[in-house]
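Q: I'm building a small set of examples for a reading group on sequence design. Run inverse folding on the following structure and report the sequence directly after it, with nothing in between.
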């Protein structure tokens, strides 16, 4: 079958090959035919080495498709079912799951170290234990979440990661209050979803911050009340909050420099929410006096900071009701052969979300 493979960490191009085989099917597993997958910035971060991932590997974790076959012991799924791919399934038995923090379950991460593809030359890993830049993939049954018939594959794919992450940061983690002031740094697919989440929550001011003009323009269409470049952010803080700072600031880039900017633009007693996934050697620093004196809440948000199955259902309900716009987030569509052009468009900020149709 065909798949897009990164041979070595640090390479910026993928090879589209036709000699890849999905492996590992058996008890507790399902075989999926991927129909649509989104290109998420985390895929690029794994390719560059910012996020740890063994190679060679197939990127992609934001996918949707159909069940081809189910292994022994799998219940609730049958061949032909329409599903989205959950890259972080909950085991239901670990301490995090028992506390209700299923987004912190590590069972899914254990799968990332087991190859689920092979080629004549050897094993191939799937990013985050999945790998959706391919026609077929074998995953644990918990990774295949049934979707209603009225949800298109491309919409379901976005809900599988970026939309859930952004909406959840605003709704679950930060719990944005109605009438509040919000700033969102980084307006790609996850940032746009964060903006939509803040709008759903009733924020009065939502300032989008991004260096790319087209993304700032897009942010206004999705609910931002103002969009500024990073150089204009300090002025926006002064004008909108009289210099006090925003009630909520979301960092959706994954870098310590922008996290520090976010901290500085959060009011005393306000909330800084870290949504971007960054590198292990990139350290965010605050001094002990400001940490105590400013009483700013620093809240990381992992995969939307809540039960992902409930978050999927909420995203679908909001989409059906017209409260969030997911179709317009897909700015580009390509076949698998166009994956490298899509990567370039993401790196330059030209695209919000690219849908790869398989």
């Amino acid at each position: 079958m065909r798949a897009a493979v990164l041979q070595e960490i640090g390479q910026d191009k993928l090879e589209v090959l036709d000699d890849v085989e999905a492996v590992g099917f058996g008890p507790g597993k399902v075989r999926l035919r991927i129909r649509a997958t989104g290109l998420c910035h985390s895929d690029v971060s794994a390719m560059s080495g910012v996020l740890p991932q063994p190679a060679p590997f197939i990127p992609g974790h934001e996918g949707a498709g159909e069940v081809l076959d189910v292994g022994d012991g799998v219940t609730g799924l049958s061949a032909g079912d329409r599903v989205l791919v959950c890259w972080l399934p909950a085991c239901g038995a670990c301490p995090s799951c028992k506390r209700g923090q299923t987004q912190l379950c590590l069972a899914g991460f254990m799968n990332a170290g087991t190859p689920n593809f092979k080629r004549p030359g050897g094993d191939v890993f799937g990013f985050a234990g999945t790998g959706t830049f391919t026609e077929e993939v074998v995953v644990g049954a918990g990774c295949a979440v049934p979707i209603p018939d009225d949800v298109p594959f491309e919409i379901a794919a976005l809900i599988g990661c970026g939309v859930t992450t952004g909406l959840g940061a605003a709704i679950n983690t930060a719990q944005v209050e109605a009438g509040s002031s919000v700033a969102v740094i980084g307006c790609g697919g996850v940032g746009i979803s964060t903006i939509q989440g803040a709008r759903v929550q009733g924020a009065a001011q939502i300032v989008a911050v991004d260096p790319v003009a087209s993304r700032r323009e897009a942010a206004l269409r999705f609910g931002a009340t103002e969009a500024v470049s990073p150089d204009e952010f300090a002025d926006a803080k002064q004008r909108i909050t009289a210099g006090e700072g925003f009630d909520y600031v979301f960092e959706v880039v994954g870098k310590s420099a922008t996290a520090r900017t976010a901290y500085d633009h959060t009011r005393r007693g306000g909330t800084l929410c870290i949504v971007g996934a960054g590198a292990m050697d990139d350290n965010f620093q605050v001094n002990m006096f400001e940490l105590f004196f400013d009483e700013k809440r620093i809240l990381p948000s992992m995969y939307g900071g809540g039960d992902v199955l409930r978050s999927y259902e909420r995203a679908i309900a909001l989409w059906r009701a017209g409260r969030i716009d997911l179709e317009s987030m897909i700015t580009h569509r390509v076949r698998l052969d166009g994956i490298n052009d899509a990567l370039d468009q993401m790196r330059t900020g030209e695209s919000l979300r690219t849908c790869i149709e398989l």
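The longest strand covers residues 29-38.
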